[in-house]
Each structure stands twice: as C-alpha cells, then as structure tokens.
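Supplementary Methods. Inverse-folding protocol.

Structures were first reduced to a discrete structure-token string of length 305. This string, shown here, constituted the complete conditioning input.
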C-alpha cells in the first residue's frame, strides 16, 4: 500500500559516545535473515530488492532501490530513495535521518537494529542473546522463552499449591486483514496489539507471541475467575478502538481461551501422570477453548468446556 505522504524528520546528530562510525552495523531483528549483521564501514550502503544493492531484501513490498545509508566517518544517515512503502525509523516515516545507537530501521517487513559505539561486537552478541528471548516484531517474549518460563512456573505452582492461569488468544479474521490491507498493515497491527496488551497486564505476567497472530499469557498467582476478568479486559481494550494504518481505520477483535492449574492437574491425574511438568497439556486446555470461542462467534472469552 502506498503512503499518503512522507514525514520529513529533523536530522539529529549521532550520539557523542560513538568513537567511530566505521564500527557501526545493522542487525536483522525481524525477517528472513534473523541475527545477520551488516557492516556499515563503506561510504554508502544501498538497500532494496535489486540484486545489485549491498543489502538485498527479497520482499514485494520493498522497492528495487529502497534506501541508502551514508557514512562520512562521523555521522551515519539513512535516506529513503522515494520508495513506494517508505522507510521507517522507530516506527516513524522518514526522508533522511542521522541514526543513533539502538534505532530500529524498518524496511518492508524486515526490521534492523542500528548498533554503534566503542564495542559493537559486544553489543552485537548482547543483541543475539536478546533475540533468543524476544520476538523481533512485537518486542514481547517469544515462544521459546515462554515455554521455558512456563515450565519453571508450572513446577513452582504445583509444588507449593499456588494459583496459575493461562490465557491463549489470537486476532479474529487476521488473514483477510493481510489480504485486504497488505502484510505491512498486518505487521503494524500485531505490534500495536501487543503494545496495548502490555499496557493493561501486570509486570509479573509472562506475555509472548506464540506464533503468527497467536499470543499467550501466563498469570502467576491468579485464579481462574480473575484470569477471565483479565481476558475480558484485554478483549475490550482491543475492541474499543480501531487500529490505523496509512490513514485507514481497521477494527480488530480477539478470541480468547482461559484455563487454570487445577484443570491441568485434573487432566494429568486422569492420565495417571506424576512426572515432570507438561506445559503442552496446559496449553492444550486453553487452546481448545480459544478455538471454541472462534467457532461460537469470535470476539469472546471461553473458560470452560
């Protein structure tokens, strides 16, 4: 989808902490080449879909010559090359901008993180470690980290007979959103949905992107009735206001399934199981209810059956 207009962003100086811009790099934090590092030592680094550019991204939403990064030895600037879908830095469309350490550059569906400073290698390895726990697009936890934490939390709650609840949910009719408005709009919605939910849950809750448009939320010390209230709060928060992309309002709703640790214990008891914690049995309970919510009309919370 083409942009309605381009925002011209005031060029800002790079951080004075940078010892040499020749040490800077881009790291892919969302996209096909996750974790790949691109050095920015040369004077210009061209980005686009063409096979002749320095950083090639094979996506239909990217122009053949999309953007260029210029390095004069002291400042690194990124400049959009009149691309169809624009270049974004920290979610803001730009024409030209001096990059600062930690800036996120979004081109098409690919997101880069700009690293500079006295020890880029250390920053790069820190970023790779972060990528093992965090979803690059939404900036919430990823499935791998969630399962590790869930197993630990499940073991603790079973041992000490503490409450623990699980909410699983996904975006209703998400494929038609992508088909109608494009994958860039879909990515924008995924990120904004995650941010809205982060704003209404507790810091101790473990919230992750489980896959595609599916999310999962673990609620330590929360019994089922309160978990249902949390799920309803999330549902209302997403339904209350449409998401805007390129000036178009897109209404979004969620379907949610809720389960608690007591139901999990009952399920494994029926199987005669007394082994290590089994997160997938717990997840299956919530997931079954999520699909029941979708089958019975969507935009609702299901906590039994």
């Amino acid at each position: 989808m083409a942009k309605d207009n381009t925002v011209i962003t005031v060029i800002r100086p790079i951080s004075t902490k940078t010892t040499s811009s020749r040490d800077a790099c881009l790291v892919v934090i969302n996209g096909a080449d996750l974790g790949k590092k691109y050095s920015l030592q040369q004077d210009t680094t061209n980005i686009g879909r063409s096979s002749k550019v320095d950083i090639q991204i094979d996506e239909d939403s990217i122009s053949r010559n999309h953007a260029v990064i210029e390095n004069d030895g002291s400042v690194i600037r990124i400049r959009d090359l009149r691309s169809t879908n624009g270049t974004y830095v920290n979610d803001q469309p730009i024409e030209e901008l001096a990059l600062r350490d930690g800036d996120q550059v979004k081109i098409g569906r690919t997101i880069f993180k700009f690293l500079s400073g006295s020890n880029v290698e250390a920053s790069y390895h820190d970023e790779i470690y972060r990528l093992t726990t965090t979803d690059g697009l939404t900036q919430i936890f990823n499935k791998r980290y969630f399962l590790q934490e869930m197993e630990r939390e499940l073991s603790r709650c079973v041992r000490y007979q503490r409450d623990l609840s699980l909410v699983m949910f996904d975006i209703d009719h998400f494929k038609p959103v992508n088909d109608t408005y494009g994958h860039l709009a879909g990515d924008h919605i995924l990120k904004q949905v995650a941010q809205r939910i982060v704003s209404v849950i507790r810091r101790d809750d473990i919230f992750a992107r489980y896959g595609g448009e599916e999310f999962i939320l673990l609620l330590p010390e929360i019994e089922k009735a309160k978990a249902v209230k949390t799920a309803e709060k999330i549902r209302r928060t997403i339904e209350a206001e449409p998401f805007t992309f390129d000036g178009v309002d897109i209404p979004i709703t969620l379907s949610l399934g809720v389960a608690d640790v007591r139901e999990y214990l009952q399920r494994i008891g029926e199987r005669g199981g007394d082994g290590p914690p089994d997160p997938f049995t717990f997840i299956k309970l919530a997931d079954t209810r999520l699909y029941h919510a979708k089958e019975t009309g969507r935009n609702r919370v299901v906590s039994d059956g």
